[in-house]
Hints:
Layout: H1 2-12, E1 16-20, E2 24-30, E3 35-43, H2 49-59, H3 62-65, H4 68-72, E4 74-82, H5 88-99, E5 106-113, H6 114-119, H7 125-133, H8 135-143, H9 150-160, H10 176-186, H11 190-197, H12 201-220
Parallel strand pairs: 3-4, 4-5
Antiparallel strand pairs: 1-2, 2-3
Helix pairs in contact: 7-9
Amino acid sequence: xxxxxxxxxxxxxxxxxxxxxxxxxxxxxxxxxxxxxxxxxxxxxxxxxxxxxxxxxxxxxxxxxxxxxxxxxxxxxxxxxxxxxxxxxxxxxxxxxxxxxxxxxxxxxxxxxxxxxxxxxxxxxxxxxxxxxxxxxxxxxxxxxxxxxxxxxxxxxxxxxxxxxxxxxxxxxxxxxxxxxxxxxxxxxxxxxxxxxxxxxxxxxxxxxxxxxxxxxxxxx
Length: 221
């Protein structure tokens, strides 16, 4: 299911599939200013980076491999299934080793669990854009990031894939000054805040030094 969703994401971002093999699917996006390539590849196991590079290079059609733009601007998106999301910790070093390898392709490991795969059933890329924009689902995800849900899968897709823009809904933003004033009032520090605002740079340095010294004194007492 997740492979189909990534295919939808690529197509919706103006990529066109130009080749498909038993190993991978190959995409291209051409604009007047740039050419970009993407490869979608399913990983049953996590190889070392050099082994992965060789497998993909061998499977890449010569018409793409020989293009100079391909060598400079190609994203390799690898889909890897976990039985449980908690398994990520034991595979973290292998995943980072692949993603940080600078040779041949920019690499992204998009891992997902069986439960996430079930949660994605019947979904689409457009539905996932609505899911990842839902603030209530985001709060639940922050509280339990290891829970396998449709949101956890959607969030990884948008975080991992560099050509996707996170969808958002425009709201009325509260200025940082207003947020600071409300926080100060809640902590009953209005007078201190008002005093700080009147300080010169020299006064501020002296105040900060005094606060540091007081903090050190409190820790030693």
